[in-house]
Amino acid sequence: MLPHPSHPVSDRQPEAASTTGNTGCEGLSGRIEQIARTRLGSLASTIDQDGYYPLDVLEELAQAGLFAPLANRDAPDLVQAVRGVTAVSRWCGSTGFLVWCHMACALYLAAAPDASLNTDLLAQHLMGARFGGTALSNPIKAQAGIEKIALHATRVAGGYLVDGTLPWVSHIAPGQYCGAVASLGDARTEQVLFLLRLDRPELLFKCPHFSGMEGTSTWGIRLQAHFVPEQDVIAAPAAPLLQKIKAPFLLLQCGMAAGIIQGAIDSMHEVEGVLGHVNQYLHDRPDTLAAELKTLEERVILLARTPAPQERDYLLDLLDIRAHGAELALRATQSALLHQGARGYLSNAAPQRRVREAQFVAIVTPAIKHLRYEMARLAQEEVPV
Q1: What span, in angstroms and rounded, lies between the C-alpha atoms of 181 and 362?
Q2: How far is CA 201 from the centre of its chain?
Q3: In terms of CB atoms within 10 Å, which of 213, 290, 341, 346 comes out highest?
Q4: What is the pLDDT of residues 219-235, one digit of tens each?
Q5: H helix runs in 271-311, sequence order
Q6: Distance between CA atoms of 112 and 122, rounded to whole angstroms?
């Protein structure tokens, strides 16, 4: 897939040896792939439409080693982590998103200065004994100047009092936790990143019913003078850490897109024997999409192997590949639905579910419009001589 012509990228070239093939999961534990295929293949529609929150499946995947690539706090294996997200998303985009949330939260825990977070809770988190997500959609948009930060913290003895409301936060529930960011002081120019423990049910409120992805346990959060102890502070100021984790944050989302694309290609192959004679006249045939997916994966794996989030060209590449992953997912899922025809339009059919999963990848933070906004801004910046 070619970069968007209006957004220049660097001269990095993907290595042929880094390709992961059509599944994007080369070298991944066969047990992880088996769990994803057998458990999620039958549960995906229930998760998507009925709101089944698959913590049992996440626990199985965790014990099979899905989150192990993030065990090294200083040098997480982003290549294997991306492949894990891809393997799960191939069968269920909702669960792939939960995996992404869980991995993003692991990155916050790993960066925390307190051992109760970076060692004890992180170990439980990676093994699926505890669960938590991320509430960073708002601060990431605020960092880009798209919206104002929603939470505000006031320094008090032993920690902070936090006030504010966040409308949509996923992979949380009473008794779980998430990483969150609040502004500080009267000027609100500084920020603090902290672990928000959802230890009281009244902190959460229900969200409207979405068209899909209902099993992602998405809630609103309302805080009123909520005390966050010093030991739960992950970074203050938060900006340097947010910049550092931006690369894995986006790369892992690319795994979601790659898995959904591969699932769409799978659906096309399912009907090739009976409908290939007429499907040959459709655009975006499975072989074409598979070739584009391979290129997408090569670019993602290269960036995952050489993270350099401080470099302007690297960040342009990263934003570009994240946007193109979303765009290719939209094309691939629509084509899969056209290839399957009426059978793919049934309420429990994978093709129509994946159309909505791809739409989610296109609008979840950072959405395609957000990515293009950041690319345009970066492209206009002068590079120091």
Answers
A1: 23
A2: 26
A3: 213
A4: 999 999 999 999 999 99
A5: 272-279, 286-305
A6: 10
